[in-house]
Amino acid sequence: ASALVSRQPVGGGEFEVPARLGLATSLGGMGHVRKQALALIELSDRPEISDRQSQAWRLQAGRLLMDAGFFEDARSAFESLLETTDASLKSQAEQELEEQLERLKELIESSIEPATWAITGTGGQGTIAIFNRSLVVYATIDVHEQICGEFTFGG
Questions:
Q1: Residue 79: enclosing H or E segment and its boundaries?
Q2: pLDDT confidence bin for 99, thresholds 50/70/90
Q3: Taking CA atoms, which of 3, 26, 63, 105 is between 20 and 30 Å from 126?
């Protein structure tokens, strides 16, 4: 993310942050949602940005990433907010992360071997539970590999 925004010629001084914010906004308008969100996160790390504004931009970035399907990046953005001292933002981030995990769970159950999941009523045995900000998947090796790639055993 740093290279993306830092390479852009935006000047400096009092107009640097507004120019970078405009750049982030234009990236979203051009369909580069992930780049837009990462630019917002980079802006939120600048020392002249207030904690409240920084947290608001991280929350917005997390939502953008989640809606675009960049679940790991969204999780990272939301988890960074869980360290905040602002109780309302922390609660909002926890709720957003929980919703993201629920959406990912539903996506997996509906798109990866749907008949293998216990919820479908087809006799499947697979389950997915949300535990400690993670998905815990009980399924066959084949289903696991479809979710996260090939397993290798031994060394």
A1: helix 71-81
A2: confident
A3: 63
